Structures are given as C-alpha cells and as structure tokens.
Amino acid sequence: MKLTTIIAVLMAFSAGSTGYAAAAENSKINVSVDATSSDVVGQQFVYELREALGSSSHLASAATEDEPFFQLKIVTLDPYSNLPGSAQSATVYSVVLTGQAFNGGQSKYFLDQWVGTCGGNFVHQCAARILASADAEMTPIIESIRKSVQKPRS
Q1: Are 108 and 98 in contact (CB under 8 A)?
Q2: Which tens digit of pLDDT belongs to each residue from 78-113?
Q3: End-to-end Cα, the chain, rounded Å
Q4: Separation of alpha carbons 149 and 97, rounded Å
Q5: N or C: which end of the chain has fewer CB within 10 A?
C-alpha cells in the first residue's frame, strides 16, 4: 500500500464522511500558508510561493485558517545577518507540509518537510520547486479520498 493511501485511510478513521465528500467535490485543493519571515529574501520567497499557489490550476489559497485541508508552515532566516555589511542576498528556509483531519479537531498529520537556501535572484524558482514538491504529496492524497467517497455505479 502506498504511503499516500495509508495517510488517506488514517485521515478517514479520524474524520466524518461529510468532510471527505466536500473535499471530493472541490475542484481545487485548499492550502494555507503560515509564514514567519523577517528577512527580505525570505519575504520574497513567501510572496512568490503564495503567488504560485494563487495562479495554480488545481491549488487554491485558503480563505480562512479553518478551511484548508493542507498547511504549509514556513520559517526563513537571513544566513548572513551576523556578518557586518551583509547585503541580504539569500534566505534559509524550512517548509513543513501538514494535513488536517476533516473531523473539526486539531489533529494534524506530518506529510513532508524541506530545508534549503535560496539566493535573492532565484526566489521564484525556489518557490515553484517547493510548491511542486508539496503538490506531489497533496494530489495523491486528495485523489485517494475522492476515490474512497465515490459511489459505485449501478
């Protein structure tokens, strides 16, 4: 059994069927972005990630904190902040992808994480790469859920 199927089954045991039916009907996957970023390049990275999320054909930025099934938690730091005369030319990021049970509880499931360094001239590419990696984790889970709630045809 694939890991994504196992995760979808675990989420099913902690959730009611109405939440899954709603997820199966949504054409876009709701994702929230929660970021702590005090460095300039890190803020650009988070902005680019949110822009990529907003322009996606099958992902959507969640309107409220209670709405999303998936969350991207991001922390960025300037790796050169202690150097005199640093030019804020890069950021170090940590991104954690979690999924939430549909039962309305606070249960979250750790799905994946990424850590890296991104130069100021490459924030668009870094953000696109992270979102693509997160999408590769989220989409199979949603597809498994959609298959599990589909009614058999007579």
Answers
A1: yes
A2: 998 887 766 778 999 999 999 886 665 667 888 999
A3: 27
A4: 24
A5: C
Please, which residues bridge with residue 72 across strands?
33, 97
Residue with tokens 């099958």: 58
pTM score: 0.80
DSSP 11-80: HHHTS-HHHHHHHHH-SSEEEEEEEEE-SHHHHHHHHHHHHHHHT-SSEEE-SSTTS-SEEEEEEEE-TT
* Domain spanning 3-149, CATH architecture: 3-Layer(aba) Sandwich (3.40)
Residue-wise burial string across 47-82, b where 16 or more C-beta atoms lie within 10 A, e elsewhere: bbbbebbeeeeebbbbeeeeebbbbbbbbbbbbbee
CA neighbor of 131 nearest in space, from 57, 25, 22: 57
Question: Token digits for 8?
Answer: 């979808």
